[in-house]
Amino acid sequence: MKPGIEIRALGGPTALLDVAGLRLLTDPTFDGPGEYPLGAGRVLVKTAPSALSPQQLGPVDAVLLSHDQHPDNLDTAGRHYLAQVPLVLTTAAAESRLAGSCRAVGIWEYVDLARPAGGTLRITRVPARHGPDGTEHLVGEVAGFVLTGADLPTVYISGDNASLDVVRSVAERFPRIDVAMLFAGAARTELIEHGHLTLTSAEAATAARILGAGQVVPLHFDSWQHFTEGGAALLAAFTDAGLRDRLTLLRPGDRAVVVLDSV
């Protein structure tokens, strides 16, 4: 059987990955639709429920948490879920606030997880910038991740990143990215008057080209009101860029098995 990964989108930034027999979850968000406070009188509005509840999801081997300071990346139910997870890889800021099984990973540092059938899956923390240059003090620390292993596709999970320069730095360190899970949606809030907090659809297509990604699975472009571009914009941008065949769009609840002949 050719190596690959299974990805199931749950809505927003939350996805379940099955990689070499390991179950990994990105940014747990399970709360229902509604308004979620975000300090200084601001709110984020969730428009759709998660495709799975924590009970339906069941146990995972690790959570890859891009950041904890925004409710669209870690909500109340997600925080409760972390209590039953054996390992949460995240930022130093998140570790200081969450404790428990959280483990801070420095940029370009890695953690190796044992694969059930032998060997390891390496999870490398990579940079992410959650907005225009110079807004880091407003949006806080964010992590991206790259998954690698013998006979496995190399997978990039961007986290809430809006910087193509960051994407270029990842491509320099990892010249082969087989699957890019790009947080898109062109998010906008009143916190940043000019610029987006995540990649636009056109930037996601450019990122795919920079990375040379064989397949792109966008996340975090649905289920929240502050996204200004959805699946239709992603499809148009990748079509315009001549990359339509590399794009896999998943609605909440959808799953895809990405198998790469060349691995």
From TrEMBL:
<keyword id="KW-0378">Hydrolase</keyword>
<protein>
    <submittedName>
        <fullName>MBL fold metallo-hydrolase</fullName>
    </submittedName>
</protein>
<dbReference type="Pfam" id="PF12706">
    <property type="entry name" value="Lactamase_B_2"/>
</dbReference>
<dbReference type="InterPro" id="IPR036866">
    <property type="entry name" value="RibonucZ/Hydroxyglut_hydro"/>
</dbReference>
<dbReference type="InterPro" id="IPR050114">
    <property type="entry name" value="UPF0173_UPF0282_UlaG_hydrolase"/>
</dbReference>
<dbReference type="InterPro" id="IPR001279">
    <property type="entry name" value="Metallo-B-lactamas"/>
</dbReference>
<dbReference type="GO" id="GO:0016787">
    <property type="term" value="F:hydrolase activity"/>
</dbReference>
<feature type="domain" description="Metallo-beta-lactamase">
    <location>
        <begin position="23"/>
        <end position="221"/>
    </location>
</feature>
